[in-house]
Amino acid sequence: MLKNDVMAGTSMDAPPLLQDPAYPAATAVMADAAVPFVRPVIPALTGIRGVAAAWVAIHHLLPPLCASIGLHALDHSSVVANGFRAVDLFFILSGLILMLTHGNDFAARDMMMVRRFLMLRLVRVVPLHVLIMLAIVPFVLLQPDFVRWSRVYTSPEYAYRQYDFSWPGFIQSLFLLQALTVAKLGMWNGPSWSLSAEVLGYFLFPALAWSLSGMRRKSLLHLLAAVALAAECGILAVAHHAYNGPSGPMGSIRMLGGFVAGMALGRVVMLGGGSARAATIMTSGGALLVMLTLILPVLSPIMVFGFAWLLCGLACRTGLLARLLGCRPALWLGAISFPFYMVHFFLFKVFEWYFAPRFAQMGSVVTLAAWAVLIGIMLALGVTLHRWVERPCHRLARRLAAGHVAPIMPPPVLPA
Hints:
Blueprint: H1 24-31, H2 43-68, H3 78-81, H4 86-102, H5 111-142, H6 144-150, H7 167-174, H8 192-212, H9 218-238, H10 248-270, H11 276-295, H12 303-315, H13 320-325, H14 328-335, H15 337-355, H16 359-362, H17 364-400
Helix pairs in contact: 2-4, 2-14, 2-15, 4-8, 4-10, 4-12, 5-8, 5-15, 5-17, 8-10, 9-10, 10-12, 11-12, 15-17
């Protein structure tokens, strides 16, 4: 997912960002291909990825945390309840960043570039996913009580939980098929469904980027982004999923709507984005819409529109919010966001299984200390996996793709 792009908010291994050759600046750059291009950094996009990962974790952790100490003031707030929508932000961000980074690789039909792109993306994300899946197996085998506890459900709509940690579910999850199949064969690592949808986006990206490469009217690109999101919201509403976070094929719908919208707005940024004033309007307007949908939960399904134009504005690197999201804590959290996101849910479930029956005897202070240790373990494991798995996979992806040299292209014009 977007969640695994590097600190700059764009991929370090990727070819330079592009601007259409029709623009005057392109001529000088293309005339001197020997001059190295330093890719512009967009720290705010890394920072907001970290914020989104934290929001998903709060959505999962805060309600049971509050229940464990008898406090119910925050666990049902709109901010907590809508934390699952941060995954939609991930999908939009992924499409935007990939378009900025790889969009012009596919201005012409070239299967070599398609293979290079897929190699770069899959080698970045799949090994970490496989490692986590394999690490879960011994625990499942050694703790059958945990498996039985995981399969308990209280409502018919959650009947699929009876298959959690089944071996057919393991195969489905290991090969990232959850978003492609209607059958729910059993969950192993909850967040991996979004990676399944993201990988589908990777395979569609070259064709979508080629289709967008001929579009130079920013108004049409903004319209395309709006139509993609409107189609997503409409389908989810008809399927009665507007107010929850569906996975499976409906998760693929969430990915496609956000991914296409992000790509279209990424193309807008490639074409120059607009003035600093336009970027500020997009950032402020997007943020205000997100806040409005949190204040009025009935409007929460259209939160994705706020995400889209907030990210487009941040990509132009202007404004106070961009500077706040570019601060060191946000960048640090953004750097580890992918492994943190991928491990937090299983660790939480193990914690809940073991401690939930004991909370009443532990007392509030000890209970809060236990939750603090859990969060510390999540962050520490995120840091460890980022350093020893994710970053080496990035380097491996660059080495494997070294034989597929990207064409030298000029950068987009971003507002100062």
